[in-house]
What does this fold into?
Amino acid sequence: MLRDKAGLVTGAASGIGRACALRLATEDAAVVVSDLESARDRCQQTAREIAQAGGPAEFVACDVADEQEQQDLVDHVVRTYGRLDFAHNNAGIGPHALLADTSAEDFDRTVRVNLRGTFLVMKHQFRQMLRDGGGSIVNTSSNACLRGAPQIGAYAATKHGVIGLTSTAAVEYGEQGIRVNAVCPGVIRTPLTTRLSEERQAEICAPQAIKRVGEPTDVAAAVAWLCSAGSSFVTGAAMPVDAGSVAG
Ligand code: NAD
It folds into this structure.
């Protein structure tokens, strides 16, 4: 689906980002994988797995909330592959607490990574894609943006914000050939969720139409399609990838 295309994935050291980077590479894309410097070893492992599967991949360390590092990341993709066809803005964090127990520091940290980070990465991607004549951006939101989300209020607020950025950007840049969509995963088996007890996981799965925890590859399939020309009439969408959890 993505032959001769080049792009980037943030938060690619683990979980959903790693699975998406591998899937995009399987679809023949050149992928720059990015994550924090502190996740260098794990993210380089993602790049090695892509290389072992025969694809080109590079690692660039960056913090999504640092504007200069975002500019440098986009520049790296363009210097290496000539253009930026797609971006999967996926890095995110999610502290657990009831709202009354959430510290202002945790709230600010979550906004910094999930919301400011998504804004900054998109800003520099738009500037490049406008020069290139188009592209496809996929942000990772959450199905916590589609309803109330007890115990993850700060996180849910940022993921609602990601949808605001996604739909606005879709309208602002549609005419210039840039599509912007979001995936809204339900519970996916990653380091972010493995701390949930078996009991809590069963509780979460109970209202779903498909009663299992999702795998990162479930999200990767949706992201690869949204990055590709196969979804050329889709923009501004907040696509649940959540086993029908918000459908019920
Ligand atoms: P994860 O913890 O495995 O991966 C998140 C990655 O983001 C990590 O590699 C981490 O190092 C990176 N990261 C954190 N802060 C960063 C920063 N400032 N700059 C760059 N990278 C940073 O978790 P995951 O479950 O794979 O989460 C990926 C995305 O999916 C997140 O945005 C998360 O909110 C979202 N999500 C996850 C689930 C789920 O159930 N796992 C559900 C809905 C949405």
